[in-house]
Amino acid sequence: MTTPLFITEEQVKSLFTMPIALDAVEEAFKARAKGDAFNEPRRRLPTSSGAYNVMFATWRGHQIAGLKSYPGGSGGINFHVMLYDTSNNSLVAVIEANRMGQVRTGAASGVATKYMAREDAQTVGIIGSGYQAETQLTAIAHVRDIKTAKVYSRLEENRTRYATKMSDVLGIDVTAVSSGEEAADSDIVATITNSQQPVLLGEWLKPGAHINAAGNNSWLKREIDTRAIAMSDIVATDDVEQAKFECGELMRAAEVGRFSWDMAVPIHDIVGGKSSGRDDDEQITLFESQGLALEDIAACERIVELAREKGVGTPLK
Questions:
Q1: Residue 200 bridge partners (DSSP)
Q2: pLDDT, tens digit, for every residue of 76-119?
Q3: All domains of the chain, ordered by start, with CATH?
Q4: Which residues are catalytic?
Q5: How far apart are CA 118 and CA 12, in angstroms?
Q6: 9 exposed, middle or buried (CB, 10 Å; 0-12, 13-18, 19+)?
Q7: C-alpha distances in angstroms, 64 versus 7, 55, 107, 137?
């Protein structure tokens, strides 16, 4: 058996790039569509300061299994993934997973954009300006020929900082704007906030727009309004069963009769060719992302491979 590794946050940052993440997540979605990979929805238990979260998945063809766990609450959030080799049931690695999660969340939206956005999409609107917002735009720019982007968040200094940084990183024109409506006037719109009230309204959307709603994994949160959901011709989720108790905006829309769960399409079925992500250039499409353990283990498998190639990581004895 190979000695397991402990891989730190800084090491993950040096190893795990967006192209690698996009490839890993897309491959994992295709495997799930074929029935070769399996995902269990997130489980939460109350703690003294918030909740303890556990999510796990397996991938038979790659002979891996793993879980991500993290306590959340007033003390902040620290993510760790334990990855196993199921050919001999040995521990492969323990990985600090804050950065990994940011990149793979962006990658999931990137893969959805590849299969659901118009081929000629060139403009992006980002609502939110944190680290997750950076990986959202980075992923989108890898799958479409993006010319310009706009960003809105509540604090002017944050959106200005984001626009300056992402212009430099991606080499495109990223502009800070003063409203969500201005940002939404785009071919592709990504929301990545922790808002409990809609930050994206259906009345702002252009015909043919694609939406990535990536900040919501709680019934308390709601980034887009029910009109935007009702206007969407195709609604994809990373996991329909998980969305039924984590996706606040779809839950709310279903409660008021503006959405039915039988309309929800698993993103792996779209990526795997079982369902269409878009039928014409006028359709509005929506991807609701809550985050999957399958994405985590697919990402961490690549991280471990790279760590061993480069001699990175601390052996665990």
A1: 224
A2: 789 999 999 999 999 999 999 999 999 999 999 999 999 999 99
A3: 5-101+294-315 (3.30.1780.10), 107-291 (3.40.50.720)
A4: 68
A5: 32
A6: middle
A7: 17, 15, 20, 30
